[in-house]
Amino acid sequence: MRWYANVREVGGGNEATVVLAHGYGSNQGLWDKLLPALSQRNRVILFDWDFTGGGGSEQLLDQGRYTFGRFADDLIALLDDKGVRGAVLVGHSMSAMAGCIASVRRPDLFSHLVLLCASPRYINSAEDGYVGGFETAGIDAMLDAMSSDFVSWVKGFVPNAVGDPVSVPPVEESFLAMHPAVALELARMIFLGDQREALAAVAAPCTIVQVERDIAAPPSVAEYMMHRLTTGAAAAADMVIIDSVGHFPQLVAPQQLLTVLEGVLRCHGGGGDGEEEEVAEAEADGGIDITA
Q1: Is beta strand 110-116 parallel, antiparallel or unpaired with respect to 17-21?
Q2: pLDDT tens, 16-29?
Q3: 209 DSSP β-pair partners
Q4: C-alpha distances out from residue 284 to 243, 250, 265, 281, Å
Q5: Active-site residue 95, yes or no?
Q6: For the segment 63-85, what is each residue's pLDDT rounded down to a tens digit?
């Protein structure tokens, strides 16, 4: 049984294959603002993880069913099924870490990883100075709230996570489409997990894209990831901070995100050295900040 469904290809360009992997509570529809530009010159592959639309409810109580390793394996299976090699993966939130693990297991599948609003660990770790943004008690309280009244939790959590009232409805709709018990099991996997060790083994070039005011994954997490990647096996790593709000820049700041992605694709999709031009233009507009 595979955990991906509704695979879709958009565009027929041959500059690069771009795989858009959505995060927790999302679905592939949240990429729609990026598709017209990305699909002009690239082959774009989208899909839904099985927890969207109530998926997974039949098997939901296989304890330990959801793991980052299994998501990574299914991402590998998807790329193999589509005959993809050397893809540019844009992994949002939990899919960023699944992509990191997949790239270690099958480096031939990925030419570049864009780690969008990623976090390898959400809970602070005082013993090693790690700032993930949350204390254990806060995560436990969140999981309890999900368990007792999932709908009320979604209606309180999503506006804070999105940060932009106009963009709340599609995210709220996608969260509410999840089976509550599946959503809870998956949240335990994500918010109680620790994937920090996976970063050191990533050899693919990476671009970490973070939002300045993201309550779920603060810039301190991006800085930590940058350090772990550049002192590990990564061929190269950049960090881009988008001057915006929330955990869903594909909805809230799509043009700023497109500027970053187009720069990555110019560099890693056979388009020459246009990445520097794109970054310079964005910095001039005050939209992003990049640290190499």
Answers
A1: unpaired
A2: 999 999 999 999 99
A3: 116, 240
A4: 13, 21, 20, 5
A5: no
A6: 557 899 999 999 999 999 999 99
